[in-house]
TrEMBL record:
The lineage of its organism: Bacteria, Bacillati, Actinomycetota, Actinomycetes, Pseudonocardiales. One of its GO terms (molecular function) is FAD binding. Residues 5-345 form the FAD-binding domain. This is Salicylate hydroxylase. InterPro entries: FAD-bd, FAD-dep_Monooxygenase_BioMet, FAD/NAD-bd_sf. The keyword Oxidoreductase applies. It comes from Saccharopolyspora dendranthemae.
Amino acid sequence: MAMAATVAIIGGGIGGLTLALGLRRRGLDAVVYERAAELHEVGAAVALSANGTRVLHDLGLSGELVERSAVPTELIYRHWGGGRRIAAYEVGQGYSARFGAPYYGVHRADLQQILASACGSERLLLGKQLVDVSPSARGHRLRFADGTDAHADVVVGADGVHSTVRRWISDVDPAVYSGTSGFRGLIAVDAMPSLPDPGAIQFWMGPGAHVLHYPIGDGSVVNFLAVVHEPSEWAAQHWVREVSPEALEAPFRAWHPGVREMVGATTVHRRWALFGQAPLNRWHRDGIVLLGDAAHAMLPHHGQGANQTIEDAATLAECLHRDSRDDALARYERLRKPRTRAVQRSSWVASDLLHVPDGPAANERDQALANIPATLRWIHGHDAEATARASGRY
Ligand SMILES: Cc1cc2nc3c(=O)[nH]c(=O)nc-3n(C[C@H](O)[C@H](O)[C@H](O)COP(=O)(O)OP(=O)(O)OC[C@H]3O[C@@H](n4cnc5c(N)ncnc54)[C@H](O)[C@@H]3O)c2cc1C
């Protein structure tokens, strides 16, 4: 069976769905092909900063997002043991006013569901795992594992860090293990009586590890990511591995009681290897283009993987709306490559800084946290769509 689409989006994650909505808003037709038979979230929750929420609000999703998200009060950096507040910045109403859009903590299942229902089942085809792309008289022919095929002028690889589409653009496998791995979980605030400021986004920074958490939904639950060093080779074979509760708790045994309550309460005992990505030389070739983690997977320490993916989607939609196919893809790559590389680099630097032991290096890092407002400005203050519009001769 052949299906026709002008733009085929491979992957129904945050990036693919946001792009489909952005294209539709501009009157362009797109079909999303997702390999999963039903949409289920990867990981627990996601923190969306103003550079992402601005785009989602423009797509008309603010009502649902407000209803299902928590707005954190502050961004706080704390000492791992005593819990001392090392630095803190307001991210509630003042943040929203400053950057023109709010900060949200949202369950991934809720975000996927909001995006998928806006997309509609006619334009989001499940159970479609892409296995091949070849040139055809009608642009590209796509073949799926279920034996069906489709044609499209533009093929967008929004298929994540282990992208299949990437092989038609680059023969390099760019995944780079960071030497760190993470545990994630959702914990009721009630289960952590010693945790100060559960309504804030907080980084607890300590020797060889850190913990990041933020509230989601109605604020009664906190999503956490605990990151530890794991410099061994296991990550190459085991991207996700089941571990014992002791393996999770051991690195945090001497930490603040609030942190111990958090990691001790999780029922998920899985360790995710954290991968970054070596920069790709090119993002598109002959009408096939990459977006999101497929193009620039990054470490989660700035909470920017999904937000940069949303920025990509807004930029690509605007470029495809304005330009001919090849000009649009070239402009998109020109606009997005430098910015995503800068965020990727910054995330790697943060990975080391969050883990330094107490002493002169930690003191230096703590003083440098005074620059956080500047970091927030260049990352969260960005307006991807306006930048794309301003970049052309439109
Ligand atoms: C521990 C952790 C915490 C994070 N926290 C945050 C955070 O707080 N804020 C933030 O901004 N980012 C965060 N991120 C990053 C964020 O999750 C990703 O950057 C984001 O999900 C990327 O979206 P995507 O659409 O590019 O890819 P994905 O979300 O990975 O979606 C890819 C989709 O493609 C589908 N697919 C794959 N192959 C095929 C195929 N061959 N055919 C059809 N479909 C296919 C997959 O099933 C999937 O649905 C975090 C990441 C990690 C690991």
